[in-house]
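hey can u check if this looks right to u? its 119 residues, i copy pasted from the old doc so theres a chance i mangled smth
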Amino acid sequence: MIPLALLAALAVVVFFIGKLLVAYATRWTSIFVESHMLDAELILRTGLVPARWLSGGRLRRRMSKPRALRRLDRLVKYYERTPFVENDTVRKTLVDRLDHVLDAWENADWSDILPRNNR
């Protein structure tokens, strides 16, 4: 038979681990949602690739346009299904505008959609 004090201590440990996991998941979700919102806002305001999406030096930039297109496509898909949109009208407007930018990026030269400091 397990002593009652040991069970109580174990329950306290499990409780605090659970609280830590919930806090971690809440923080991670907040960062994830906020980064998507900031990316969408920047893209819609400027029509440019967010600077934080770019990685590597000049030699890797040639490969970055397809990666940026995939990332924007994933952002569109995120807004098609996320519950973090005010209503369906806002969702449709946001998705339509992001789709329009995606089409523009597909037809643009890579240098035209880079932020000025990355050209």
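The chain has one domain: 4-118.
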